[in-house]
């Protein structure tokens, strides 16, 4: 990814396809939030704005993908990149977007908790 993308606060469009019917955005954790709850809160208003921009005239589908790095504290060179994703959800103009986002964040947190509870010894190093 270019330096411009990785050093810009907010959602940055990184790709589109099918005549812009599919658009991917990236949000870098530039403020180095150390917990998922803090990270979600820091980017929520920007996410609402980005989704609303596309949802003005027709329904859209969206999903979230969270990229993080985990490591084992007592094991050298044990870093592991992980992704947690939500299923695609439809959003209509009349949808309660904040409730949908909160539900999506909760699902990501549950997926992460499931990963950590497997007894692998991995702990969160950074939210990418």
Number of spatially distinct domains: 1
Please give the number of β-strands: 7
| Parts with pLDDT < 50 across at least 5 consecutive residues | none
CA-based gyration radius: 16 Å
Output the number of helix runs.
3
The structural class is alpha+beta
| Biggest sheet descriptor | 3 strands, antiparallel
Mean pLDDT: 88
Strand share of the residues? 25-35%
Strand order of the largest sheet: 5-4-7
- For the termini, the CA-CA separation is 13 Å
What's the helical proportion of residues?
A: 25-40%
Silhouette: elongated
Order of helices and strands: HEEHEEEEHE
Keywords summarizing the entry:
alpha+beta; elongated; 128 residues; two-stranded antiparallel sheet
């Amino acid at each position: 990814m270019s330096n411009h993308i990785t050093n810009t606060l907010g959602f940055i469009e990184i790709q589109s396809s099918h005549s812009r019917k599919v658009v991917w955005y990236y949000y870098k954790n530039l403020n180095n939030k150390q917990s998922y709850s803090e990270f979600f809160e820091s980017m929520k208003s920007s996410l609402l704005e980005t989704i609303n921009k596309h949802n003005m005239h027709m329904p859209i589908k969206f999903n979230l993908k969270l990229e993080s790095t985990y490591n084992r504290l007592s094991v050298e060179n044990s870093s592991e990149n992980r992704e947690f994703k939500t299923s695609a959800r439809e959003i209509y103009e009349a949808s309660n977007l904040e409730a949908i986002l909160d539900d999506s964040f909760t699902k990501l947190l549950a997926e992460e908790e499931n990963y950590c509870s497997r007894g692998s010894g991995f702990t969160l190093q950074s939210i990418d």
